[in-house]
Write a structure and sequence with these properties.
10 helices; six-stranded mixed beta sheet; seven-stranded mixed beta sheet; single chain; binds adenosine-5'-diphosphate; alpha+beta; binds magnesium ion
Length: 321
């Protein structure tokens, strides 16, 4: 039987107890948390983008530079951490100056917008892949873990779902729809850094949607020992995504497609008004899409029926991928 990505990580790299007293949180969340001094924690994450797996061959280098950093800032946002430093490990088939200049432009422009310093990295020759490590700062005990969801909490989502998934289908020629904004969402995701900073004082659990809502919310449910039911009619979907669903009949796409980099989080009923006020002030779209329940698993209320959404989501190494 093929070994799934998350089972692989758990089995071979996730079973050691922390040996250092400053290691608050290790393998298994959007970032690790290290107590660097009293009152301050460091959030650390690393992600790799491989040509042909995470982006199509020939992808515009400027967009790729942006995205390589954006996906890491998104993991910091999911912890409620303020981005501070990044390192960049590049593996390149050749040193193409025009490619490098575009890549650096996309990467450094985004870094500048969020006040992040590029402090080091590594450059090697080989098949194109980009690894970025990001470090951010969060006030002690305020980091948003996946394990804090409680029965009765609302399940929320920033922005819209499925646009990046539609963008990928368009690039692959699998959707005959004119939707440049969906392709832009795939190629240049905007990390929800400001929203994450606000949520650090409000949400009970948080994850960024990188592998699809069903799978990523599943991580919160598993880590928190709870379940959830989502309401289909509350899912925030762009008009082009609705159009695609009507044309194709593929209603599950927004739940399973990755790359949206929105934040999915849970908030207790007492904090909901404050959440809505703060997100409105930030001008950040934010929808309540369901509720946390004690019954394990992920369900969807759709047209008076309850559908089981277990085991939806993207996993590297699992059979079928
Ligand atoms: P995300 O999608 O938020 O970037 P991942 O799904 O990549 O998170 O990883 C899940 C968890 O497993 C994270 O805590 C990550 O740091 C950890 N992890 C992944 N691969 C390894 C590895 N080879 N060794 C140790 N930890 C790993
Ligand atoms: Mg993540």
């Amino acid at each position: 039987m093929a070994l799934g990505e998350f089972e692989l990580i758990r089995r071979f790299f996730g079973r050691r107890a922390a040996q250092h007293s400053a290691t608050l949180l290790g393998v298994g969340d959007d970032c690790a948390l290290l107590r660097i001094e009293r009152g301050t924690d460091l959030a650390v994450t690393v992600d790799t983008l491989v040509e042909g797996v995470h982006f199509l061959p020939g992808t515009n280098p400027e967009g790729l530079g942006h995205k390589a950093l954006a996906v890491n800032l998104s993991d910091l946002a999911a912890m409620g951490a303020r981005p501070a430093w990044v390192t960049l490990a590049l593996t390149l088939p050749e040193a193409d100056e025009s490619w490098l200049s575009g890549f650096a432009e996309g990467f450094l422009k985004l870094a500048e917008r969020y006040g992040v310093d590029l402090i080091g990295g590594d450059t090697t020759r080989g098949p194109l892949s980009v690894t970025v490590q990001a470090l951010g700062i969060v006030e002690a005990r305020r980091a948003l873990r996946r394990s804090g969801a409680r029965v009765g909490d609302g399940v929320y989502l920033t922005g819209e779902l499925g646009s990046a998934g539609l963008g990928l289908k368009i690039l692959l020629g699998e959707a005959d729809i004119e939707a440049p904004e969906a392709v832009a969402r795939l190629e240049r995701p905007e990390p929800r850094v400001q929203a994450g900073l606000i949520l650090a004082g409000i949400a009970s659990a948080c994850i960024d949607v990188s592998d699809g809502l069903a799978g990523d919310l599943g991580h919160i449910l598993e880590a928190s020992g709870v379940g959830a039911t989502l309401e289909w009619s509350r899912l925030p979907l762009a008009a082009s995504v609705r159009h695609y669903m009507v044309l194709s009949g593929d209603w599950a796409m927004p739940l399973t497609a990755g790359d949206d980099y929105e934040l999915c989080f849970t908030v207790s009923p007492e904090r909901e008004r404050e959440l809505v006020r703060r997100m409105t002030d930030l001008n950040c779209a934010c929808a309540r899409i369901g509720r946390i329940e004690s019954l394990p698993g992920l369900r969807m209320e759709k047209d008076t029926r309850i559908l089981d959404l277990a085991a939806m989501g993207y996993q590297h190494f699992s059979s079928g991928n």
